[in-house]
Write a structure and sequence with these properties.
This protein is α+β, with helices and mostly antiparallel strands. The chain is about 30% helix and about 30% strand. The protein starts with 6 loop residues before the first strand and ends in a 6-residue tail after the last strand.
Length: about 180
C-alpha cells in the first residue's frame, strides 16, 4: 500500500488519485453534508433558545444580587429602546433602580439587554399580572411567582423559566399551559 504513494524519481512516474477517484470522493462528501444539514438546523435552534434562556436567568440573578448588595429595589421590564419600559420582552429587557415601571432619572438605569436578530418570542406571566419583575432590598421578588415562556419563531421548540417568590429560577424543557 505504501509503495502506491511513492514517487519513482528515476522513471518520472507519480502514483496518486485520478479524476474518477476524486469525483467519487467529492460525491460521498457532498452526500454526507446533505444528510447532516437538517439535524444541524434543529441543533442550532435549540442552542439559540438555550442561550436566550440562560441569558435571562443570568440577568435575573444579577438583578437579585444587586438588590441585595445595594439594599435597593431593582426592577426588570420589557423595553424596546432601553430608556423606558414598554414593548415586547423579545425586544429587550431594562434593569433599573425603582419601585414600578416609572424611570424618574436616567442615572437609575443599570443595564439594557437587547435581543436583536434572535427569532425567539419571550412572554412573561406574573402572579399579579405585573408587566415587570421587582426585587426588593432583601433580594425577594415582589411580583410573587411567574414564568417566562420562550418559543422559537416557528413555534416548534419552547423553554419555560419558572421563578418562585424568593427569586429562584428553574428551566423546564417544555411549558405547560399555565
Amino acid at each position: 500500500m505504501l509503495n502506491h504513494w511513492k514517487i519513482n524519481w528515476q522513471k518520472g512516474i507519480c502514483h496518486g488519485f485520478g479524476i474518477l477517484e476524486l469525483f467519487i470522493g467529492l460525491m460521498m462528501l457532498s452526500l454526507a453534508v446533505i444528510a447532516v444539514t437538517p439535524g444541524m438546523h434543529s441543533y442550532w435552534q435549540r442552542q439559540q433558545l438555550n442561550r436566550v434562556a440562560w441569558d435571562i436567568v443570568s440577568l435575573l440573578q444579577w438583578a437579585q444580587t444587586l438588590a441585595q448588595t445595594q439594599q435597593r429595589s431593582v426592577v426588570i421590564c420589557a423595553s424596546q429602546d432601553g430608556k423606558q419600559c414598554g414593548g415586547q420582552w423579545s425586544q429587550g429587557m431594562l434593569v433599573f433602580y425603582g419601585h414600578d415601571q416609572q424611570i424618574t432619572e436616567p442615572a437609575m438605569i443599570l443595564r439594557f439587554h437587547a435581543y436583536a436578530n434572535i427569532p425567539v418570542n419571550i412572554d412573561w406571566r406574573g402572579f399579579w399580572s405585573h408587566e415587570y419583575i421587582r426585587f426588593d432590598g432583601y433580594g425577594l421578588g415582589q411580583t410573587l411567582s411567574g414564568r417566562f415562556r420562550l418559543t422559537q419563531a416557528a413555534g416548534s421548540l419552547s423553554r419555560c423559566l419558572v421563578m418562585n417568590r424568593i427569586g429562584r429560577i428553574r428551566v423546564e424543557a417544555e411549558c405547560s399551559n399555565l
